[in-house]
From TrEMBL:
It comes from Dendroctonus ponderosae (Mountain pine beetle). Residues 90-107, 134-144 have a biased composition (Basic residues). Residues 1-19, 30-41 have a biased composition (Basic and acidic residues). One of its GO terms (cellular component) is nucleus. Residues 58-73 have a biased composition (Acidic residues). This is Uncharacterized protein. Pfam families: DUF4211. Residues 1-107, 119-144 are annotated as: Disordered.
Length: 482
């Protein structure tokens, strides 16, 4: 098993300790203070390596119903087998496990979980084949391959690459506002007019209601400046050749108080050391799929205490959010079960008029949410059977504000999964660039990348703070209603 490298808790995060040989010497000294675990070699059932999968370019296109939709990370299988060339050192002690049985059990469990989750051909969410699949004949009864962790990490990397290179995140005709101005009473809103122009709409009073109309003011925007804008919901009131009047549906948005968010972000900075050990644990799990299970078996206090600290904070945020939104049991169970989802923003007029939001039960449906993925054990990240009550709960129609809250809930509920995927992608990149690189070297290099660690910690603190802002917003509304 991968050597567990323990850094002193009082480690100062200065640049001299994380660069070059000085950082690696520090890691080596830290390891000398910790009883070294005995090691041996362990053969692992062979399978196509991640490098081979990445090189394979014969992947089918995404199903039509999911094209042009906003995707979360794809489905995955935590306990996938690894290639023989990637065998890792393992402890001599067998811990009472019969030889050769440990790999088979998770594999069978994952297969059952994938089938229970409804991952099949019709979903379009199965494993990408190595070569184009031949057309089925009447005599063909081959079972569909089970999605593996490697397959879905590759898909996640491709999705991330596409997102990074998408210079047009908003559609023509969509309305946006500057993020920093949304908190104002009636901020200016803009209509997307092609890839490089925005047309301004200004507020005016009409029969006691604040509406917006277009004016002859335009501004240009670039791929970089588009990050300053956020999509806003509107309702068309009137439209002619000269003037368009809309109503800004501000109540359908969750407005985050920047002062509250900044305060929450600051308070969470004290957990940075815990978070770095948390990420170190997930990197180690990506390098050795038995890592988490073994530190639980050994009661490894160094890793477990830091992981538990982050898990406890995340669980409190999760419970707070679920208490605020008060979703129906079917929706809450689905969000907790399925780690991935697609948001389809183009729905039929019949659905928009006749259906109610699955979360708030109001007649303001704007999107359709399709949930999917591989259910997993939140502690060990091993694949598991899905909640029987959630097997058929995957398809929901929602309003704009509720789908934003579903997205936030998914981030906090599946935080460890999302962070693990990020770690696995970085491990994959390291192994692809140098297949002979030692696993300990990969671990040290990733832990020395402070920009990456800081970015991950920023993402986690951001959605923690968004939940606190949502609670503040609910409290303000309740006070004003009294």
């Amino acid at each position: 098993m991968l050597d567990k490298i323990k850094e002193p808790k009082e480690r100062k995060r200065d640049k001299d300790k994380i660069k070059g040989s000085s950082y690696r010497n520090q890691i080596g000294n830290a390891k000398e203070d910790v009883p070294k675990r005995e090691q041996t070699k362990r053969a692992v059932k062979g399978k196509m390596s991640l490098t081979d999968i990445i090189k394979d370019g014969d992947e089918p296109e995404e199903p039509p119903e999911f094209q042009d939709s906003e995707d979360s990370d794809p489905a995955w299988t935590p306990a996938a087998s690894v290639d023989d060339e990637d065998m890792l050192p393992m402890k001599k002690k067998s811990r009472g496990r019969p030889g050769g049985t440990k790999n088979k059990k998770p594999r069978n469990l994952i297969a059952a979980a994938a089938q229970g989750a409804g991952i099949n051909d019709s979903d379009g969410l199965g494993v990408y084949p190595e070569h184009p699949m031949p057309k089925k004949t009447k005599t063909s009864h081959k079972a569909k391959p089970v999605p593996t962790l490697e397959d879905n990490i590759v898909a996640s990397m491709q999705n991330s690459f596409s997102a990074v290179n998408d210079d047009n995140p908003f559609k023509t005709g969509e309305f946006v506002a500057i993020r920093g101005e949304v908190c104002n009473d009636w901020p200016a809103i803009w209509r997307v007019d092609g890839k490089t122009l925005l047309q301004k709409y200004e507020p005016f009073e009409h029969e006691g209601t604040t509406l917006y109309r277009n004016i002859s003011t335009y501004t240009s925007w670039t791929a970089e400046s588009k990050k300053q804008y956020i999509s806003v919901p509107v309702k068309y009131k009137s439209q002619s050749q000269l003037e368009t009047v809309v109503e800004f549906l501000k109540d359908e948005m969750t407005i985050l108080d920047p002062k509250i968010q900044e305060q929450c972000m600051k308070q969470c900075e004290s957990y940075q050391d815990n978070f770095e050990v948390y990420i170190q644990t997930l990197i180690s799990q990506a390098l050795d799929s038995n890592f988490l299970m073994e530190i639980f078996q050994e009661k490894d206090e160094y890793f477990l205490s830091n992981v538990q600290t982050i898990d406890d904070i995340t669980e409190r945020k999760k419970q707070k959010l679920l208490q605020l939104v008060q979703w129906p049991a079917s929706l809450q169970g689905a969000v907790c079960t399925w780690p991935c989802f697609n948001v389809l923003r183009e729905i039929g007029p019949g659905d928009a008029q006749t259906r109610t939001c699955a979360a708030c039960e109001r007649h303001n449906v704007a999107v359709r949410v399709i949930m999917y993925g591989q259910p997993y054990n939140a502690t060990t990240l091993e694949g598991c059977q899905p909640d029987p009550n959630a097997i058929n709960d995957k398809d929901f129609f929602m309003c704009r504000i509720c789908v934003n809250r579903v997205e936030l809930a998914s981030k906090v509920i599946h935080q460890k999964y999302l962070m693990y995927i990020e770690c696995a992608k970085r491990v994959s990149e390291k192994r692809t660039s140098d297949p002979t690189k030692d696993t300990t070297c990969i671990l040290n290099e990733l832990l020395a990348d402070e920009n990456w660690l800081n970015q991950l910690f920023l993402e986690v603190r951001t959605f923690w703070s968004e939940i606190e802002c949502l609670e503040h917003s609910f409290n303000v509304k309740n006070l004003s209603a009294q």
